[in-house]
Amino acid sequence: RKEVEQDPGPFNVPEGATVAFNCTYSNSASQSFFWYRQDCRKEPKLLMSVYSSGNEDGRFTAQLNRASQYISLLIRDSKLSDSATYLCVVGDNYGQNFVFGPGTRLSVLP
Amino acid sequence: GAGVSQSPRYKVAKRGQDVALRCDPISGHVSLFWYQQALGQGPEFLTYFQNEAQLDKSGLPSDRFFAERPEGSVSTLKIQRTQQEDSAVYLCASSARGGPSKTQYFGPGTRLLVL
After folding, report:
1. Which of A98, A108, B24, B86 has CA 20 to 30 A from A76's CA?
2. Contact B104/A98, CB-based, under 8 Å?
3. What is the mean pLDDT of chain A?
4. Longest dimension (CA), chain B
């Protein structure tokens, strides 16, 4: 079993839709959690950190469920520019030992 | 300010050739990471430096892979006797001194193709 698992998609959604991704992780000692975004043939870029209490950044909401060991990302009112691969990342208490999921591909259609 | 830079951006090597990939981290960043990303997969950890010390090299797939950061800044990932399975994008990332929410900033990667 991989340490971090994601549904690879693709998720094809119309503009304006709400879409949610889940990610599960196996290492219960994990302490840091992130969502990164990666555009085609580009490097990953931090979208948002995920905190225990959940956090929101504009149209994006991230939640962490430690008991069930999963992380979610919700995108509201999706835009064409949201089309990308979303990588779930789990790390240790020092922001190191990052383990990336395989990514979930999102295509927002006009 | 300048981000993480990597060179070359693209490298084509013949099987058996040695290659060297360079990473210039963000100035002042203590931590430096190397990842390998195969097509359609997430990045896989290779090795980690804190300043010049290589603290974790558990992800290096074989002894053909070697990384160094002699002065705690620029790092080089060297692959000896390249094989076709080494074809991938090699990503470098750097972060400031460690902490639970430290962001890793990635370079654009070196796309290696071994023929």
Report:
1. A98
2. yes
3. 92
4. 41
